[in-house]
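pasting for the record
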Amino acid sequence: MHTAHTDTAHQQQHRIGRAGWLRAAVLGANDGIISIASLVLGIAAAHGTHSSILVAGVAGLVAGALSMAAGEFVSVSSQADVEQADLALEKKHLAADRDYEVEELAGIYVGRGLKPALATVVAKQLMAHDALGAHARDELGISATVKARPLQAALTSAGSFAAGAALPLLAAIIAPGMWFTFCVAGGSLLCLAVLGGLAAYVGGAPIMQGAIRILFWGALAMGVTAGVGALFGAVL
């Protein structure tokens, strides 16, 4: 019985390892749905033709996916550059004064609850195994789990944006004229609710909270954009 319990405990999966790709995927898909649905509804409210709505939607999908990829790549690359600079600086410190670095690491462990003597022993053993890795993890907060991955973030964001944007665009293609606004807005909000709930479930958060949160902002964006489109359509 003890062995079975131990095996089960060892098989537990923590969710922090999903943080990088989950953030990029959810952000991209949400942005795709909200951006294209809002764009389509805004042009429709301004009395745009069906063909002009579809052209704008496709253009928005392509431009948005490329923008997401570029933005994520630049942003996460900057984070990776900072990490590499910090690691290079830490490597110099280790070479210049290793004893001080042992004391520094031991101080961190004391702050986490270890007694000073034990903290020093732990710091020395960890540094004997991998000094830079120990300081990267415990002093700088850099580990393989949360390490910046620019290309992964860029591809995930672009792909998820395109997938999300395709949903309201598909609704715009197949929706009949009198039901156009209802189909695009309703279908987009439904997709947002499902996506928000799924993201919350994967991340271990309350499902309803995740769905309501994204529904509020999605409905707000679509409503404001449609209002602006109607205003400019009336003026023009």
